Amino acid sequence: MKKRFIFTVLMLLAVFTLVACGETETPEVTLSAITFSGVDNVTLDFDADFNVLDGVTATGNNDVDYSDLITYSHVATTIITDDVLDTTVTGQHAIKYEVEVDGILAQVFRMVTVSEPAAVEGQMLVNADFSQGTAGWDGSAVYIADGAEMTLSTEDFDGNLAFKAEVVVGANVWTPRFGQMNVPFEDGKTYEISFKAKSSAEKIINLQVGEILAGAPYWNDFKPGLTITKTITTEWATYSYKFTMNQDNQAGGILFEMGTIGSNAVNATLWFDDITITETTPDLDETAPAFTGLAASKSILVGADFVPMAGVTAFDIVDGDVTEDVVVEIKDSMDAVVQSVDTSVEGTYTLTYTVSDVAGNEAEFVVTLEIVGMQFSDTNLIVNPSFEADLNVETPEWALWQQDGYWATPAPVVVTELDTTAGTYSLDITGGGDAAWAVQFSQDGIELVEGNTYRLTVMVQAEVARKINVAVGYGDPWVQYARFDGQDVATDETTLEFLFTVSQATHEVKVVFELGSQDGFADGLVTFSEVKLQEALLDDIIMNGQFNTGWELWFQDWGDAPTVTLDRTNGSFDLAIDKGGDAFWAVQFNQLVDLEAATTYTLSFDASATVARNINIELLGTSLEGDSKGSFDLTTGVQTFTVDITTTDALTAAKLSFEMGATGSFAAGTVSLDNISLKVKDDAEAEELIINGDATSVPYFMYDNAGEGAGTMVLGENSAVIDVTTLGSQPYTPHFYQMIEGLTPGDYVLKIVLDSTVDRDLRVNMVLPDSGYASILADGSVDFGVVSTETNVVYVTFTVTNEVTNVKLELDFGTLTDLTSAVGVFTIYEVLVYQDLN
Q1: Strands 362-372 and 297-301
Q2: Residues of the chain by 3-state class (helix, strand, coil), percent to 5
Q3: pTM (2 decimals)?
Q4: Which of 470, 471, 648, 770 has the CB geometry, 3.0–4.6 Å to 484, for a possible disulfide?
Q5: CA distances (Å), origin 405, targets 412, 416, 722, 798
Q6: Residue 261, CB half-sphere, CA atoms under 13 Å: how many?
Q7: What is the mean pLDDT of residues 103-122?
Q8: Top CATH class, 149-280
Q9: pLDDT tens readout for residues 543-584
Q10: From the candidate CATH numbers 2.60.120.260, 3.40.920.10, 3.30.70.970, 2.40.50.100, the one assigned to the domain spanning 702-835
Q11: Please, are residues 352 and 328 in contact by the beta-carbon 8 Å criterion?
């Protein structure tokens, strides 16, 4: 017993000793996470050595080092060779590191920023000799948008590196562009910018000096009022220009803009060399000031406000703003000098604007101003307007309603008489009831279109002078489109005239003459002799705001008429035709085109048919007319047809018509047309005259990714369908827009109707590119929310105080700070801008 006890004690002591010494086995940790180290964002000097894996480690939560398993990826513009980053490529490089072990994936992004190289002491430009490639010239100043493309590189010419720009032009002067910012210009000094250049094709470029701004107006011009363009030829030549710096600002620089200048839109490869900036002395000032905001001819409506200097400025390249020195002389149609323009009556005036600079250079601009009355359609929307026919009792065009005895005691008593010989309708009224509306003479079923302006004219007289009301609207409760209360009607025939703009949705309305009680009411006879409602003939401010194709389909609708349907789902114009009708002209696909007289054009198009047949093409006033019209044999395979067309000496416009009726070899089936083009023959810079020749373009509207955002725009069914796939950093990256020729002073309404696949905010703006993208909206822009569950209708009201030209209406889909921004598909059904003359 004693020995056993001693043995047990010894065993317990041994166990205790082992535990006390910490020699128990540690449980194994399961890998569940991996952490990177050494992947902080970093900024590097130009051409610095940098290995993307140096110092980068990956450690698991089980303390195992997995650094040898690290992989990385990057975009194509980032160049990494044998783990070494090419730091001659400036800007930001996003590198994604990854490790995957036993199904555990760890990822981390790292931003490596390579700085621009420093300028050589004594030089104002970085990398002026291009020995460092494109560095310094491919940074923030580069802008590619509006369909433009540009590839920058260098090319060796006999041991000398030159800068190379391969350019596809965009819609604007500045798309595309390259340049260099942060040039240390000094206030008060004059500089000469010089460079050598050549081009694969003769091309005009625009040269700018200024500062790129992050927000509106987006550009701070260092040479305001001075436009400098150079025509680059196919041989090396030296070009230069001067400007005087009048700001204390070293954030700006120089730009080479290679987009569309006027009608010049040449795609080319350009080379540049020896770009230098040197301090110099200004040239002798022989340049007169320049006016902005003036046009050689101008017309305004009778009654409009007119201030001769509204919107007019004058700028001198040396003296700066000289607007206060402008003198305006006004002469009437008799050539007599007058003090002001009388806009109350139609007339013609001549305004001569003059201004001089300090050097004595004088500028003069002559404006012919016409005061015109508003023109109206000959179509009267009122039925039986002169009461020369019996009233239609089945679908009454004129109707009488009066308050009865249930509502008023005594109730009005109205006796009517229609005299179709005299052309009058008389209402003998006794008692006015409770209000003006107690007696109503009206006509219903008149469609008024939102945004249109109308004139309502009424010829009326009263047995006893009195007042009446006029109302336009519909429904109960009443939706009012226009109202004119307390109108005086005399004992002699009176012509009442009312002008109003429809600011409600398009709808059928009722025109109502309220003849009941009000101040000025009198018992007696009220006689109407004529009522007119006419639409004002005003130019559309927005072109194609309901997104038509730009083409007109017409086909015979009498006799053995064909049935024709148009489909664009395949990206072409597919016309399914079942019959030929009476002649070749029984089916027509048309577009009006503007042409020059005595000019040769080239028409080209792709075409096919599901059953082989021929079609005709006619363009009256050209060699494609009458017996000379083109006949083209279509097969089931797509063919490209090309034909030259010469206009007559007098032609200025014509209708291009694809005739697909009963031609010589007509066959029922589908005719497909695509890539329709009409341009001046053998002119590389010729403008495309066909609108939407590819069946998918949105006529008159543009979609601009602005170099950052991404997406597409195509023509839908009476809509523009915009698929925004990537958001840029700015609200306008990307955006949808149309250029408006001009707006006169007044109050305006903008309406946009759209669907969205996402809930987000959007921004609408109206800016002036010629004035540094200044906004004409009171708050600089308008933000609004759209939802995915309903069609969104957005209204924006704004006022134009001075006449403006070249206005850019834009809808922004980019990133809106502090608001909701998201990619999605946006279907726009209507864009409407109209002046509200109410």
Answers
A1: parallel
A2: 5, 50, 45
A3: 0.71
A4: 470
A5: 8, 19, 60, 48
A6: 18
A7: 86
A8: mainly beta
A9: 999 999 999 999 999 999 999 999 999 999 999 999 999 999
A10: 2.60.120.260
A11: yes
